[in-house]
């Protein structure tokens, strides 16, 4: 037997080793960066980044993501156009995605999070809200907030400056009541505890540079919209009519979908102060309510980073229930609309979730909404007794039939109350159902050659070999008897608006073209796909409003189906387009991204699986992460040049209404503000009330040209819309 002292020494050594092991285990748990933020509502952005950055790149996952994106892009109509977009978008869109994918495949990354940022920003450089890569493992797990949303305001002398919005403290104290003390305490010196005094302050410097340096830097990475002015406007706060109420959009400065910034250094001049203040405010990260709870790295990845229902497509023959695509949570559209068959969608994706922050009561309309109001659409009568308003936050609703009947009922109610003029406010409208856009155009304008049989635009789809096989499988094997698939011939009509039969492969023969030196192929020209089947309510036999008495208002962030509606109303009917706010030396466009019909990897994967083509070498594999890849599935042809896509044609606002402190984020004040007659330069023998009379979908129409005009502040108080 060993001596006692040897036993005690051995025991002590074992105890020390055990204690060290236990301490090491505890320390391992303590240094788990995801455990530090698990279960918490508010954390520091640096702590979120530490969690995100703690995972190395898995080569198999990286390869899978790149293969899914690459093969899904075969269905994206704009991929070759976007290598060098036509003017006026050439300087903003010039991205060769396949070269990018090759570069990314060969690049080394410090973490999976770094890989995500590169991949996400690469797709965002397309400035196309339909074609984006979103990894829900990171976006938006936490949202980064500041309590001081900004606005670009115009002074009485016409100069422009960036301001903290007057309602900043009211918004922040209502939405971030449990975090206000952190920001109050972050202020130093005489400003400590005086966060409210920052409201309305002029911003002189952001991180030591003029404010528009930050605005333009954000415009390079925010994506979503082709026009520079629209991406600049994304930096600032705004409002939107939500499905239940009026929502407040904080803007890209005060809300980030990733933990990119820890703090901001500002030099400001507060209201009624003559000397500037220097301050630093921290960003704070708040967990997204849709994030699945976690308490450490393992549960974070297991609960939020693996595929979920809708990430991948499904064989519709294997289940009678079709789950919503995972893309729905990033689209400005209801999940029921997205899941419904025969509901053709054109909707942009956004890494920032729909806002549940409320527009302050003092900025909301106080007049009661009229009968016909539905979800994202509200009707109001102005005090002048002659102007009606439709505030429309989306072209999608939980029930498209209710939306159709509500639109008609609301407009008829406005007419009955004496309205002869109509304002349609589509601020921050991200699109929705294509046929709802057609319906609204049709009932406002009445039956004429621009609304019957098509109240929209002709279009074309990408015509790749796998797409052709999908259509042929549907035809040969009758694999879509319930008409659930996008590629079913029965959904579409030819250029003469004659519906295809069940045996027509509408992708044959392909139309072969060269775009930016690359061979490409598209379908034949497609005509109407909404009337009469989708119109479940009988449209009126006459116009409800004269097009010369209709105005469409937005902040330029009108996308997808909203763009299609606005374009046809403007270019075919002569409706005036007003963009509120924006830099006065940058052209403001009334739509941000156009497209024709949007789709995503999951929906395309369903087409592939249901037509028994998943084993094709052209088919993308199942995605191994909780991700979404969007595409623009169809491109609409233009009005001015009907041989080319409308997406690459110009859409200048007729009027740019400057924002002032009394107008900012105040829809009622904006609706009642002045306007001017747009400058007209008529060509030919003159013009009627419409800008273009469409005699044929295949000939270029003559039209009156309209040019962007800006109201001067001197005129602002005395002008009327009409």
Automatic annotation (TrEMBL):
It comes from Mycena venus. Pfam families: Peptidase_S41 (PF03572). PANTHER family: PEPTIDASE S41 FAMILY PROTEIN (PTHR37049), RHODANESE DOMAIN-CONTAINING PROTEIN (PTHR37049:SF4). InterPro entries: ClpP/crotonase-like_dom_sf, S41A_metabolite_peptidase, Tail-specific_protease. This is Peptidase S41 family protein ustP. Gene3D superfamilies: 2-enoyl-CoA Hydratase, Chain A, domain 1. Residues 386-578 form the Tail specific protease domain. Residues 683-703 are annotated as: Disordered. Transmembrane segments: none annotated. Residues 694-703 have a biased composition (Basic residues). GO terms for biological process: proteolysis. The keyword Signal applies. Residues 1-21 form the signal peptide. GO terms for molecular function: serine-type peptidase activity. Keywords: Signal.
């Amino acid at each position: 037997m060993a001596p006692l002292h040897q036993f005690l020494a051995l025991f002590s050594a074992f105890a020390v080793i055990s204690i060290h092991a236990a301490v090491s285990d505890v320390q391992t748990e303590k240094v788990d960066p995801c455990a530090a933020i698990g279960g918490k509502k508010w954390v520091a952005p640096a702590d979120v980044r530490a969690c995100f950055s703690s995972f190395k790149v898995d080569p198999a996952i990286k390869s899978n993501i790149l293969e899914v994106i690459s093969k899904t892009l075969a269905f994206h109509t704009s991929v070759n156009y976007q290598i060098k977009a036509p003017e006026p978008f050439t300087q903003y869109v010039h991205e060769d995605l396949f070269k990018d994918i090759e570069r990314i495949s060969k690049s080394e990354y410090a973490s999976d999070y770094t890989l995500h940022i590169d991949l996400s920003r690469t797709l965002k450089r397309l400035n196309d809200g339909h074609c984006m890569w979103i990894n829900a493992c990171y976006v938006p797990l936490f949202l980064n907030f500041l309590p001081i949303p900004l606005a670009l305001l115009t002074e009485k002398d016409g100069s422009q400056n960036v301001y903290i919005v007057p309602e900043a403290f009211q918004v922040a104290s209502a939405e971030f009541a449990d975090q206000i003390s952190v920001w109050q305490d972050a202020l130093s010196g005489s400003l400590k505890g005086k966060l409210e005094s920052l409201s309305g302050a002029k911003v002189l410097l952001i991180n030591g540079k003029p404010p528009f340096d930050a605005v333009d830097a954000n415009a390079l990475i925010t994506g979503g919209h082709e026009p520079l002015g629209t991406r600049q406007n994304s930096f600032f706060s705004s409002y939107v009519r939500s499905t239940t109420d009026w929502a407040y959009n904080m803007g890209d400065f005060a809300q980030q979908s990733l933990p990119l910034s820890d703090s901001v250094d500002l030099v400001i001049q507060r209201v009624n102060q003559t000397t500037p203040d220097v301050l630093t405010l921290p960003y704070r990260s708040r967990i997204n309510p849709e994030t699945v709870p976690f308490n450490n790295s393992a549960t974070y990845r297991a609960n939020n980073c693996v595929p979920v229902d809708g990430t991948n497509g499904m064989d519709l023959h294997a289940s009678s229930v079709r789950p919503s695509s995972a893309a729905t949570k990033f689209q400005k559209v209801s999940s029921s609309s997205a899941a419904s068959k025969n509901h053709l969608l054109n909707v942009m994706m956004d890494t920032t979730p729909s806002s549940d922050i409320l527009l302050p009561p003092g900025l909301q309309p106080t007049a009661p909404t009229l009968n016909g109001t539905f979800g994202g659409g509200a009707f109001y009568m102005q005090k002048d007794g002659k102007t009606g308003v439709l505030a429309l936050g989306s072209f999608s609703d939980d029930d498209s039939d209710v939306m159709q009947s509500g639109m008609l009922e609301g407009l008829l109610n406005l007419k009955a109350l004496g309205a002869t003029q109509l304002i349609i406010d589509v601020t921050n409208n991200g699109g929705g159902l294509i046929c709802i856009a057609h319906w609204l155009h049709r009932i406002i304008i009445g039956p004429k050659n621009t609304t019957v049989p098509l109240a929209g635009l002709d279009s074309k789809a990408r015509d790749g070999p796998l797409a052709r096989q999908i259509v042929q499988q549907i035809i040969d094997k009758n694999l879509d008897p319930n008409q659930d698939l996008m590629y079913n011939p029965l959904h579409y009509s030819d250029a003469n608006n004659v519906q295809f039969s069940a045996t027509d492969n509408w992708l044959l023969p392909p139309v072969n073209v060269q775009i930016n030196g690359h061979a490409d192929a598209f379908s034949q020209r497609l005509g109407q796909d909404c009337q009469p089947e989708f119109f479940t309510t009988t449209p009126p036999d006459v116009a409800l409003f004269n097009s010369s008495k209709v105005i469409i208002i937005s902040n330029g962030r009108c996308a997808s189906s909203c763009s299609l509606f606005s374009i046809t109303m403007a270019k075919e009917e002569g409706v005036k387009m007003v963009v509120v706010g924006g830099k006065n030396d940058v052209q403001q466009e009334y739509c941000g991204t156009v497209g024709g019909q949007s789709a995503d990897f999951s929906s395309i994967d369903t087409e592939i699986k249901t037509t028994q083509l998943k084993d094709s070498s052209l088919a993308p594999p199942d995605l191994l992460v909780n991700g979404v890849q969007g595409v623009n599935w169809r491109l609409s042809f233009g009005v001015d040049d009907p041989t080319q896509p409308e997406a690459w044609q110009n859409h200048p606002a007729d009027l740019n209404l400057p924002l002032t402190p009394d107008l900012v984020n105040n829809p009622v004040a904006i609706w009642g503000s002045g306007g001017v007659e747009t400058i007209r330069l008529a060509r030919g023998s003159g013009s009627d009330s419409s800008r273009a009379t469409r005699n044929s979908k295949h000939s270029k129409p003559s039209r009156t040209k309209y040019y962007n005009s800006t109201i001067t502040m001197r005129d602002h108080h005395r002008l009327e819309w009409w």
